[in-house]
Task: inverse folding
């Protein structure tokens, strides 16, 4: 059942569950962050509407800077603004920022410890028809390896809206990962969220879980569907929303591993170095259990519809189900 | 811009000489680091820290201070040496350059010395940070109160990020930003014009809508006038292209790109210090 304490969207199962792009939530959250603090500024590299920064630009034109197609400049200018007390959000597609400008982010933002927020929209394979050049599948890996940098990946537009406002107050450098496609709304305005914390979205009606699924981003919805379907087959599952990949909720993850004894991680990212790797690092040290990793297996993507790409690259419902069954067999 | 009297000019010359002596001593002690750039920029840093800048070494985080961004972090021996002589920290500490636990990291790091405006080392990212600082001041309507100065090398003009910053500052017409390019014509692999030609450099900056001033990098009066002109320009950022002699002050090191990235040995340090202390043989006994 859905965790009753989190006030999640109860209309999740209807065929016409509301779907909104996660990036839209960022756009709305940024306006709210701008209203709350006049030091919030926004910079964009020629993708203002795509990254949903146009809402902020319309509301606060004097606090918005158009950088042009220059992602290295995007983040270095933002670093300078942060040095003077501003809280800059800089947006582009994840493939270009942090894809192209990684060293500038490392030296001028993370090493400098400036509270710049790198907003990478259109992350993951679900960018679809644009093809492999535009499908950022390595961004979590390169950003979480950077000291001082926090990494967050919201699961829906409402969570993205809240996370954006939290990031504006965090005082730390951060990477915010967003997706292009419309994705189901799982949370509500009342659902609590905090940086560095995980949440159990789905749990068995009674008894303890025998598998824990840890998901980040929009694929969380697929994980919840799998949990519900397998419930009818008698498999007890807990599904965790890991919005905060770094810092990671070590306590929550270890506690889930202790209860379930087996874990499946689900992310729209390369398996190498991604959220699943981060979970494995934690569990290998604190409580080793069998883990199966859902994600892209060391391949580049290609053009296609988001759904067919998710299926083809092994991140769909059937793949998650298989992984659950496989990890159950590996339990000692 | 304060008037630069003859007496003050003489003081600055001696101060720059002391700063060069410290640069040699700290590099010999460190056993690694860059020699040519720091010596070449000693006069300009001296002018700024002892005449131009609005700053307070005893209160380094004074909110109203001018901002100094060092983009080419490898010339940090001149920054550290000048800051020490200006009173930011004890001159004795210069001997810790590049050593474990030192505040004086091989390339500047804010975490170790929080009153640096930026960390640097990887080239080409300083100007854009300076643009961001100047832009933030303009948004806050503080752009009449202070300037953001960015010290950069000619070699790092090879970097694309630099030109992205130049283009943006030109577009935004940021007048409270002054860049100073150390035009010493050398980089690690050789002369800039052999490695990656920069000329016509003045035309390039001008084409990006900057006000451009060319000046000799070792004449305090001309430098002071150049800064004064830059501060008066309306509606444009200014770049001062300062023609400097790499290794300036030690004849044997001057104009030789081999001195870009290595320190003097103990022997070389000895004759370099002797040359500086006699002001290049102008006086017989070494001053201390």
Result:
């Amino acid at each position: 059942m859905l965790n009753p304490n989190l006030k999640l969207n109860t209309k999740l199962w209807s065929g016409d569950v509301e779907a909104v792009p996660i990036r839209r939530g960022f756009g709305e959250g940024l306006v709210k962050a701008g209203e709350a603090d006049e030091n919030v500024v926004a910079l964009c590299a020629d993708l203002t509407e795509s990254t949903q920064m146009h809402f902020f630009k319309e509301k606060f034109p004097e606090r918005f800077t158009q950088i042009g197609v220059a992602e290295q400049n995007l983040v270095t200018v933002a670093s300078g603004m942060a040095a003077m007390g501003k809280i800059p959000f800089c947006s582009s597609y994840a493939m270009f920022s942090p894809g192209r400008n990684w060293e500038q982010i490392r030296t001028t933002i993370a090493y400098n410890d400036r509270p710049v927020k790198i907003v990478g929209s259109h992350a993951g394979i679900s960018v679809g028809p644009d093809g492999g050049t535009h499908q950022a599948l390595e961004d979590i890996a390169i950003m979480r390896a950077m000291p001082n940098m926090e990494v967050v990946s919201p699961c829906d537009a409402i969570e993205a809206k809240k996370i954006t406002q939290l990031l504006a107050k965090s005082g730390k450098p951060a990477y915010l990962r967003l997706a292009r496609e419309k994705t189901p709304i799982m949370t509500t305005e009342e659902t609590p969220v905090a940086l560095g914390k995980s949440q159990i979205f789905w749990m068995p009606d009674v008894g303890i879980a025998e598998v824990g699924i840890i998901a980040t981003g929009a694929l969380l919805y697929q994980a919840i569907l799998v949990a519900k379907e397998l419930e009818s087959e008698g498999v007890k599952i807990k599904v965790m929303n890991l919005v905060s990949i770094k810092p990671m909720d070590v306590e929550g993850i270890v506690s889930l591993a202790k209860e379930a004894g087996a874990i499946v991680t689900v992310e729209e990212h390369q398996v190498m170095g991604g959220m699943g790797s981060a979970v494995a690092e934690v569990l290998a040290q604190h409580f080793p259990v069998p883990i199966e990793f859902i994600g892209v297996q060391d391949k580049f993507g290609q053009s296609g519809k988001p759904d067919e790409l998710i299926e083809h690259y092994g991140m769909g419902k059937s793949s998650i189900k298989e992984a659950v069954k496989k990890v159950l067999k590996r339990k000692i | 811009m304060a008037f630069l009297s003859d007496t003050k000019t003489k003081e600055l010359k001696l101060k720059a000489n002391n700063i060069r002596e410290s640069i040699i001593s700290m590099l010999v002690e460190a056993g690694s680091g860059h020699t040519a750039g720091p010596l070449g920029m000693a006069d300009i840093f001296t002018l700024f820290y002892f005449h131009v800048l609005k700053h307070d070494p005893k209160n380094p985080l004074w909110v109203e201070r001018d901002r100094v961004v060092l983009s080419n972090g490898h010339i940090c021996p001149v920054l550290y040496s000048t800051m020490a002589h200006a009173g930011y920290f004890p001159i004795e500490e210069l001997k810790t350059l590049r050593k474990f636990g030192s505040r004086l990291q091989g390339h500047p790091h804010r975490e170790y010395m929080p009153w640096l405006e930026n960390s640097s080392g990887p080239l080409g990212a300083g100007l854009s940070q300076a643009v961001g600082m100047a832009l933030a001041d303009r948004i806050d309507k503080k752009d009449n109160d202070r300037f953001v100065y960015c010290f950069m090398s000619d070699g790092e003009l090879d970097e694309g990020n630099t030109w992205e910053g130049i283009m943006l500052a030109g577009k935004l017409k940021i007048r409270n930003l002054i860049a100073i390019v150390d035009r010493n014509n050398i980089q690690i692999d050789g002369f800039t014009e052999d490695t990656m030609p920069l000329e016509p450099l003045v035309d390039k900056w001008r084409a990006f809508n900057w006000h451009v001033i060319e000046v000799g990098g070792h004449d305090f009066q001309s430098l002071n006038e150049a800064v004064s002109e830059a501060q008066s320009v309306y509606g444009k950022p200014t770049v001062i292209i300062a023609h400097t002699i790499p290794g300036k002050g030690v004849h044997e090191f001057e104009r030789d790109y081999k001195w870009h990235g290595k320190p003097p040995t103990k022997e070389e340090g000895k004759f370099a210090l002797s040359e500086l202390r006699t002001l290049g043989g102008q006086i017989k006994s070494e001053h201390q």
